[in-house]
């Protein structure tokens, strides 16, 4: 059996994808470069050779996750440039739990002096992208992002999504009856 050699760019992407998964599971403090290396099927020294530090790897994962959100929003806006189409696009991203959990970990690390500037810039990029693509004013964009953050938290808590837990009444109230027909919400309460 022969192994296919990856290009440097492909290996970089493989490591960033593994980092997204690892950091989604353990956060910044709870994840090691060795865990990322194992997920990617490479040695830990190789990860350090490519990224230098765990901090640089974490920031690359945060940038990657932000880029995926921007990319999905741009694709949606190419068809229809309004907040509703971006919302539908975000619904698709809710299935990528590791990606969104990684972003939550990144934003939670925003107070760290070494991480904060980059993760704040990531959030700012998403905000500016929403405004640029839709023409939304500040209040509309703020409301859109607030709803998106709520959905992200609900997804991470498994209140919505394909592996959602049985809903308690408060969960259904929080989601809102108008959203009950969305596929990503998962099973209805019993």
Automatic annotation (TrEMBL):
Pfam families linked to this entry: TetR_N (PF00440)
Annotated InterPro entries: Homeodomain-like_sf, HTH-type_TetR-like_transc_reg, HTH_TetR
GO molecular function: DNA-binding transcription factor activity; transcription cis-regulatory region binding
DNA-binding residue intervals: 32-51
The keyword DNA-binding is annotated on this UniProt entry: yes
SUPFAM superfamilies for the chain: Homeodomain-like
HTH tetR-type domain location: 9-69
Keyword presence, DNA-binding: yes
Keywords assigned: DNA-binding
Name of this protein: TetR family transcriptional regulator
Lineage per the UniProt record: Bacteria, Bacillati, Actinomycetota, Actinomycetes, Micromonosporales
């Amino acid at each position: 059996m022969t192994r296919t050699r990856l290009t440097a760019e492909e290996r970089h992407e493989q490591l960033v994808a593994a980092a997204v998964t690892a950091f989604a599971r353990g956060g910044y403090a709870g994840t090691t470069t060795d865990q990322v290396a194992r997920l990617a099927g490479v040695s830990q020294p190789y990860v350090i050779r490519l990224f230098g530090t765990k901090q640089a790897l974490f920031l690359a994962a945060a940038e990657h996750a932000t880029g995926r959100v921007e990319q999905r929003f741009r694709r949606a806006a190419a068809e229809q440039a309004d907040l509703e189409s971006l919302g539908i696009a975000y619904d698709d991203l809710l299935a990528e739990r590791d990606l969104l959990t990684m972003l939550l970990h990144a934003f939670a690390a925003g107070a760290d002096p070494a991480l904060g500037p980059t993760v704040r810039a990531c959030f700012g990029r998403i905000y500016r992208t929403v405004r640029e693509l839709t023409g939304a004013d500040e209040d509309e964009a703020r409301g859109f992002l607030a709803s998106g953050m709520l959905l992200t938290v609900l997804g991470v808590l498994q209140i919505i999504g394909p592996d959602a837990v049985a809903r308690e009444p408060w969960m259904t109230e929080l989601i809102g009856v108008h959203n009950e027909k969305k596929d990503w919400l998962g099973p209805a309460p019993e």
